[in-house]
Amino acid sequence: MRFVGGPVAWRVPIACQVIFAFVVIFLVFGLPESPRWLYYHGRNEEALQVMCDVWDEPPDGEKVLKMQTEILETIAMERKEGEYKWANILKRDDVQTGRRVLLAYGMQFMNQVGGINLVVYYVPTALQNNVGLSANLSLVIGGCVQTMFFFGSLIPTFLLDRMGRRRPMMWGSAGLAISMMLIAVLLSISTARGYSQTLQKATSSASVTFFFTYMFIFGATANCIPWVYVPEILPLHARAKGTAIGISSNWLWNFVIVMITPTLLNNLQWKGYLIFMCTNFAFVPLVYFCYPETKNLTLEEVDHLFTAGGKHGAKALTAPSQPVQESFKAQALGDDEKMVGRGGGLAAEHAEVSDGVRGGYAG
Predict the structure, then answer these.
(1) Nearest CA-CA partner of 54 in 43, 40, 68, 75
(2) Which stretches make up the Major facilitator superfamily (MFS) profile domain (predicted)?
């Protein structure tokens, strides 16, 4: 469209994005409501039916009963605390809501401050000004670089629940840092005095490779994980507000990076890439020490990670989450046995949120 000229050159590409929006709108109608949301609003029979459909189990199936118990326990605790207000969003409570909101903010911060929008928005400019390619060739290669985002995104699409959350973020951040470092090193050689013109041209061309690796690695790791992790890490009572804070972090730092990148590229040249090398390297220990693994955990099990003074949350940072899952499983199964012993009824402490549920699965 660049060769067309006029407003059509930019209006048509933007308009084409409407196609994908309509596809999403169409697919949304096939999605069920969340069982947690349904239970929270008293639509117990619908919630039970959704869980039965998802797991292909009868209403008295072990997995359905276990999940039902966990959800109702969480709702009972949250209703006991009352309506959650913005003023309480960063306060420390029994499930460490404030800490979890900060983790959500930080995860989306990492999504942007690693330098992704230097590549997404400005790679043609970088290739032209820093690498020395022609305008047309910069646009062509820039378009090819963007396709790596698609290919990289295929990996978590199929493997994210096997990969987990922490390891891809750590390895991904390290890979992004190395890509930025190699771009900086190669461009520094291409502009330094004392090297032959042949070597300078070769190193300049070689730097293009690492724009490709950067985009592929980002697509495979830091692109999707923050959007999955943020709602996973937040408790139900603060999920809407906490997710809003996390997403605001993404777009705030998106704006900052987009505004400062032209100055970095023009004034610092290859040194500007070292800034993003440092931020990405810094994210590796940050994820390791601060972010627990949420792979294959229910939202109620994630709440359990942050209870008891955060002991389980700290343990999950450096140890596999399986012991925590087994502990919670034993607790939940114990609750189920109590329920069975009472003829399928829920514990008395959950009576305020379980009215109408007994008849839904005991029959």
Answers:
(1) 68
(2) 1-295
Residues 156 and 293 occupy one common structural domain: yes
Q: Is the CB of residue 166 less than 8 Å from the CB of residue 287?
A: yes
Q: What CA–CA distance (Å, rounded) separates 20 from 37?
A: 27
Residues 331-350: tens digit of each pLDDT: 334 444 433 333 333 334 44
Give the count of beta carbons closer than 10 Å to the beta carbon of residue 219. Answer: 24
Is the same domain home to 20 and 41?
no
Check which CATH number belongs to the domain holding 160 and give it.
1.20.1250.20
Question: What percentage of residues in the chain have a pLDDT greater than 70?
Answer: 83
**Cβ–Cβ under 8 Å, residues 42 and 26:** no
> Which domain range does residue 154 map to?
97-300
Token duo for residue 221: 């790791």
Quick one: average pLDDT of 39-50?
90
Is-above-0.70 flag for pTM? Answer: yes
